[in-house]
Amino acid sequence: MAQPNWYRKCVACGKARPKNELLRIVKQKDKLLEIDFEQVKPGRGAYCCPRKECAMLAEKKYGLEKSYRCDIDRSFYKQLIKQVEKIEH
C-alpha cells in the first residue's frame, strides 16, 4: 500500500515517517546546508530521523551526498549530530 504524500524517508535508515517527525535539511541554491526546524525554508529538502544513530548512519552511508548529488562537508554532519543530541535530551 502506498504511503500518504506527507510521509518522507530518512536518508539514513530509509524508514518512512510523517514529515513533522523528521528533521528537514535544506540546501539552497548557493549550496548552503542548514537544518530547517520549522520546515518552511525554500530549497531542496532531505529528511533525517531526530536520533543520533540516524545522524551518524547518514554520515557513514553518505545519505546527504546521495540526496543532493554533491559533496557535503564533514563539519555539517558534526553539526547535525550535535543538534540531534540536543533534541534527544
Radius of gyration: 12 Å
Low-confidence stretches are: none
Strand content: 15-25%
Order of strands across the widest beta sheet?
Answer: 4-3-5
- The count of helical stretches stands at 3
Distance between the termini: 35 Å
The CATH architecture term is 2-Layer Sandwich
Largest sheet: 3 strands, antiparallel
Strand runs, count:
5
CATH superfamily: YlxR-like
Task: Give helix and strand order, one letter per element, not per position.
Answer: EEEEEHHH
Compute the number of structural domains: 1
Describe this protein's structure.
The protein is an alpha+beta fold and 89 residues long. It has one domain (7-88): Hypothetical Cytosolic Protein, Chain: A, CATH 3.30.1230. Helices cover 34% and strands 22% of the residues. It has 3 helices and 5 strands. It has a 3-stranded antiparallel beta sheet with strand order 4-3-5. A two-stranded antiparallel sheet has the order 1-2. Helix 1 runs antiparallel to helix 3 (74-88). The longest helix has 15 residues, at 74-88. The chain is globular. The model has no long low-confidence stretch (mean pLDDT 91).
